[in-house]
Amino acid sequence: MGKITNNRLTSSFSGQFSDDVVFRQVGNKTFFARKGVNEKPPTPAQTGNRNLFAQAQNYASRRLEDPKYSEWYTIVAKVNGLRSAQIAAVKDFMSKPEIDSLNTRQYRGTVGDVIHIKPKMFLKIEKINVTIYGADGTLLEAGAATKSELNWKYRATTPNAQAEGSRVVVVAYDRLEKSCTVVQYLGS
User: Fold this and answer.
1) What angle do CA 133, 134, 137 make, to 5 degrees?
2) Would you tell me how many other CB atoms lie within 10 Å of the CB of residue 140?
3) pLDDT tens string 64-91
4) Which of 169, 174, 140, 172 lies closest to 157, judged by CA?
5) CB neighbours of 96 closer than 8 A, spacing ≥ 6?
6) Is 79 helix (H, G, I), strand (E, B) or coil?
7) The pTM is what?
8) Distances (CA, A) of 161 to 20, 58, 166
9) Where do the domains of the chain lie, and which CATH numbers do they carry?
10) Helical H runs in the chain?
């Protein structure tokens, strides 16, 4: 693979050139290589992944045409250390929301106790519902968590006389209505 530096002519090249050469941009550098040839037919899993990626690229292109979403995905890219709004939009389409950590140390069963929720990808999650079940399995409370800068928090609204052994269920949703569920039991 060759590398071209400081050449105004090739600085914007990207993609296939003739039947033999492929150009690729990585950062502000241009690379070129002979086009690879794969003679094996794709597996069903590869075909499925290629279709999903094509759908993600299509979603990203449509969203980024809207200035509101273009600005939003630019911010998402910056906050999450991604190189571009396009990458942020593709990642948003292809991934489910994920909870990085659920901190229940401040929850002791008192009204106003806080449960902290940290997402894996910042600004991906649009809504979080929290449900607390007592040690005996009875529903104690359910409600929405609120954003707290880049993370989320939930304030307890119902006393829980026996917090130890209780169960906290957190369901996070993204803008595409994909969800993830995290369950944590409160121990000693």
Assistant:
1) 75
2) 20
3) 999 999 999 999 999 999 999 999 999 9
4) 140
5) 174, 178, 179, 180
6) helix
7) 0.76
8) 72, 52, 10
9) 2-34 (no CATH), 44-94 (no CATH), 99-185 (2.60.40.10)
10) 44-65, 67-80, 85-94
